[in-house]
Amino acid sequence: MVQVFIKDIPKLQSLDEEVIIKGWLFNKRSSGKIHFLQVRDGTGFIQVIVEKGNVKDNVFQSCNELTLESSIIIEGKAKKDDRAPSGFEMDLTDLKVIQLAHEYPIQKKEHGIEFLLDNRHLWLRSPKQWAIQRIRNTIINSIFEYLNSQGFIKIDSPILTPTACEGTTTLFPVPYIPSWKDEGKGDAIKVFVPNSKTESNDKPFAFLTQSGQLYLEAAIFAHRRVFDFGPTFRAEKSKTRRHLTEFWMMDAEAAFVEHRENMKIQEELTVAIVKNVLDKNTKELEMLKRNIKSLENSAQGKYTIITHKEAIKITNKLGSKVSERDDFGAEDETILPKEFDRPIFIEKYPKEVKAFYMKEDANDKSRVLNDDMLAPEGYGEIIGGSQREDDYDKLLKRIKEEKLPVKDFEWYLDLRKYGSVPHSGFGIGLERYVTWICGLKHIRTTIPFPRMINRLRP
Ligand code: ATP
């Protein structure tokens, strides 16, 4: 008898042979002489039928007593069934219970979101949550696949940093390197006493990274095209459906790539990701009841490019009060893309609303060569990119204008002293991307264990 994964059942050579599945019971319906067990094994879901008379009495009795989320090993024969989501069902012949679960807290009824988030360690098992993480996995793999195919290599940027990259208001400080003062209760209870200074840092704190971009810029001079993928941290003080305090970001950076080519890479990457998800996650998209029309359009490419100036005019006509020198607000990012059936680019924002490292537009010095990719259906910004300022003097001026500590950026300025070249890059906030692809209302379920202003557990 062979052990199989549920996902591989449609590929079985013969259905005559009995197979073994190891997994968990996620639902059960019973009517006297028959049990319908819904079983999941981490790779998929299958309905298992247990008929009295067809199995030993003790096996039927075990099924009677089986509770939600008990871990089990089942033996049986798979059979085709067109009504089943996977096209297959299974007739049980034998059952072993590994552990009988007691009063699983998540029952087949409506639970409040806070209850579910408190039980996130268990909620992850539910079919929709399962589907979201499978799609997230496809997106991550697609990013690696596409960038590797384009000659980008993965470079890991640091998590502990001495400076801000994306504005000082959302920095997460961590004591660095702290001394530990014993509270006199043995080793168990100790308190942080940040040093006023350490050998490696002239401040008592380091900051958790907000983005690896600046470090990637250093790496392009060694490897030409690089990317990183890792957790980033922003102490977001507002409670919104789009913000986490810990989220995963992919930054890509390339030497000798200018603004428009940078946007082309972002579009091709998005096309590659969406195509892969449509191809590999059909079942998961169905489980999420995702309307895939706009994903199908997004997989076609040909994304419209609109200047910030133009975008403001259109958005004003749609009722927004945003003005020509403003950043695009969350609401504007929602209303404008609703006019389009696939992602759009907004380019060339006013210099004063964007980060210091963006290159100024030679045709209009009050603007920068940046782009935001906005998802359709009101999901807002999914990628932010720009050509980077490669001129030493202009960059230094911007750092000073932003009142950033020049000393901390000396190494970054060095990159403009030794072989500076035009270069560009972009960042994808993975969870915003997953929110869009899965068609979710809130970002919180796109990550296994969300960290938000009001949530650090479990
Ligand atoms: P916003 O204005 O929406 O807060 P931002 O302009 O600060 O975002 P960037 O600095 O451009 O965002 O960050 C790069 C990407 O990281 C964004 O495109 C977005 O997808 C994502 N991102 C930024 N902040 C968060 C957050 N708090 N939670 C989840 N994703 C985020």
Keywords:
458 residues, 21 strands, 5-stranded mixed beta barrel, alpha+beta, binds adenosine-5'-triphosphate, 2 domains, OB fold (Dihydrolipoamide Acetyltransferase, E2P), BirA Bifunctional Protein, domain 2
Give a short overview:
With 458 residues, the chain is of the alpha+beta class.
What features would you describe in this structure?
The protein has 458 residues and is α+β, with helices and mostly antiparallel strands. The chain has helices spanning 57-65, 113-118, 120-123, 127-149, 213-223, 259-280, 282-287, 293-298, 308-317, 330-335, 392-401, 410-414, 430-438, and strands at 2-3, 19-31, 34-40, 45-51, 71-80, 88-99, 153-154, 160-161, 173-175, 179-182, 190-193, 205-208, 225-233, 246-255, 304-307, 344-347, 360-361, 364-368, 370-375, 380-387, 423-429. It folds into two domains: 2-99, OB fold (Dihydrolipoamide Acetyltransferase, E2P), CATH 2.40.50.140; 127-445, Bira Bifunctional Protein, Domain 2 (BirA Bifunctional Protein, domain 2, 2-Layer Sandwich). Helix content is 28%, strand content 27%. The longest helix has 23 residues, at 127-149. The chain is elongated. Adenosine-5'-triphosphate (ATP) is lined by residues 166, 234, 236, 242-244, 247, 249, 381-384, 427, 429, 431-432.
CATH class of the largest domain: Alpha Beta
CA-based gyration radius: 27 Å
Number of strands: 21
Strand order of the largest sheet: 7-13-14-21-20-19-16-15
Task: Look at the structure and name the CATH superfamily of the largest domain.
Answer: Bira Bifunctional Protein, Domain 2
Taken together, the total number of domains comes to 2
Any idea of the CATH topology of the largest domain? BirA Bifunctional Protein, domain 2
Helix content: 25-40%
Counting DSSP H or I runs of 4 or more residues, the number of helices is 13
End-to-end separation: 40 Å
Structural class: alpha+beta
Q: What hetero molecules are bound to the protein chains?
A: adenosine-5'-triphosphate
CATH architecture of the largest domain: 2-Layer Sandwich
- Principal-axes shape call: elongated
Q: On the 0-100 scale, what is the average pLDDT? A: 92
Percent in strands = 25-35%
